[in-house]
Amino acid sequence: MNPNSDMKIKLAIFDFDGTLFDSMFVWDEAGKVFLGSLGKEPKPGMREAVRTMSMAQSAEYIKSECDIDLSVEEIIEGIDKTIENYYINVVQPKPGIPELLEELKSSGASICIATATDRYLIEAALKRCGLLKFFDVIFTCSEVGAGKDEPIIFRKAMEHFGADRESTLVFEDSLYATKTAKADGFKVLAVYDQSEKGQDELKQVADIYIESFEDIKSPTALFNS
User: Fold this and answer.
1) Structural domain boundaries enclosing 49
2) H and E: helices and strands count for the chain
3) d(CA 159, CA 221)
4) Is the residue at 1 inside a domain?
5) 41-52 per-residue burial string, b: 16 or more CB within 10 A, e: under 16
């Protein structure tokens, strides 16, 4: 589907990491940065090994593999502080996002965030970049009690605004979350992020696929409410 096609959208649901903000690198780099603060180097293959682990599992792995004389709880706290610093001081919105949000807000569409990241981190990054004003509500997976392998967070957002699937557009960068939303009947605009390796499949699954938000030349057509 053409990214400038005429879709009447009343609600835009944005993922945060990799979609609104160029921040997926934080989760890949946090362990490495934390180890560096201790004068340690990550073992080869550590990034891939911890990618699907919980924070506790990752801390156990790092403690064992890197011979760190800290408790698992202390390692988790150290990594959390590293991640926190990135959101409070470093991460930036993707190109074209401020302009797109301004256009959306002007069109009268409601805008919210649906994210797996903790609320305080999201709010800190949005405030620093002057973008918090654009979002009516932030929904987090921890608060709704389900990850994006289930459609609950998208349904909660839609129900909150009294919207329906036909008038809602979900913005995502990840293949698994796009599949979840699509399987539940939502329209999805997928944006490229280097962290997602399944780009070919993502292009096939999403209703709209773009390399960058700067590719949307006519937001008023796309988000005509």
Assistant:
1) 25-89
2) 11, 6
3) 25
4) no
5) ebeeebeebbee
Place of tokens 């608060």: 143
Q: What are the CA-CA distances from residue 197 to residues 57, 157, 173, 175, 193 (Å)? A: 23, 27, 10, 9, 9
Final residue in a domain of this structure, among 58, 89, 120: 89
Domain tally, the chain = 2
Q: What share of the chain is helix, strand, coil (3-state, %, to 5)?
A: 50, 15, 35
The CATH number for 81's domain is 1.10.150
Other residues' Cβ atoms within 10 Å of the Cβ of residue 204? 11
The CA angle 116-121-126, to the nearest 5 degrees, is 105
Question: Which stretches within 66-162 are classed as H helix?
Answer: 72-89, 97-107, 119-128, 141-144, 152-161
The pTM is what?
A: 0.87
**What's the token pair of residue 212?**
């960058």
Q: What is the pLDDT along the chain (225 residues), one digit of tens a residue?
A: 444 445 578 999 999 999 999 999 898 788 888 999 999 988 888 877 776 677 788 889 899 989 899 999 999 999 999 999 999 999 999 999 999 999 899 989 999 999 999 999 999 999 999 999 999 999 999 899 999 999 999 999 999 999 999 999 999 999 999 999 999 999 999 999 998 999 999 999 999 999 999 988 765 555 543
CATH of the domain at 169: 3.40.50.1000
Residues 34, 82: contact at Cβ < 8 Å?
yes
